[in-house]
Amino acid sequence: xxxxxxxxxxxxxxxxxxxxxxxxxxxxxxxxxxxxxxxxxxxxxxxxxxxxxxxxxxxxxxxxxxxxxxxxxxxxxxxxxxxxxxxxxxxxxxxxxxxxxxxxxxxxxxxxxxxxxxxxxxxxxxxxxxxxxxxxxxxxxxxxxxxxxxxxxxxxxxxxxxxxxxxxxxxxxxxxxxxxxxxxxxxxxxxxxxxxxxxxxxxxxxxxxxxxxxxxxxxxxxxxxxxxxxxxxxxxxxxxxxxxx
Length: 245
Known about the structure:
Blueprint: H1 16-25, E1 32-35, H2 42-48, E2 53-58, E3 70-72, E4 86-92, H3 101-111, E5 112-123, H4 128-137, H5 163-171, E6 175-181, H6 195-210, H7 214-227, H8 230-234, E7 237-244
Parallel strand pairs: 1-2, 1-4, 2-3, 4-5
Antiparallel strand pairs: 5-7, 6-7
């Protein structure tokens, strides 16, 4: 990757890059990896140091990694790559910033090979702590106050979604979730532990009351287990790995 450079600062919640890299390392056949949006290149730097063939992409070039492969790409539009070009796609804290997440996921499906993996992280608005904030203020932790509508910014969190919404997005577009985890649980999140059994009971009752289809009821039990898992109920970031079918 050219001359040695200092470690690039990770512009993501603590431990996010490490956890995503560990999930990727469990895929022995993944060598060609797309990182989008790659930002300054911290995750590219991490993967290059482990021998991956890495490609960075972003809407603008902010790379601080000399010699890194980079192309300009807008996650709202067609990605500038051939079909089945990658073994894995990583998107750290990117999907919540875009206007067209369905189109982005479809493009990820196109440029991944069959059996490849898509890994992404995003603010975890399904956490009990975030749900409590929403109840009191109408805003989640990923966007605590109203966005400045007079000055649109690519940094705005315009696409925050719950875990179940991301599951629908992935499973409707040729992916199957294989892992759901988080970067860390902040100490303050333990204060919301008393809400956990109540949330489990309420979710169970609602899913049973409003769904009559037997097949969907089975899926709902799986969704409930994922939604109220330790990582989703208490984690700071939502980290998902999905396999391209």
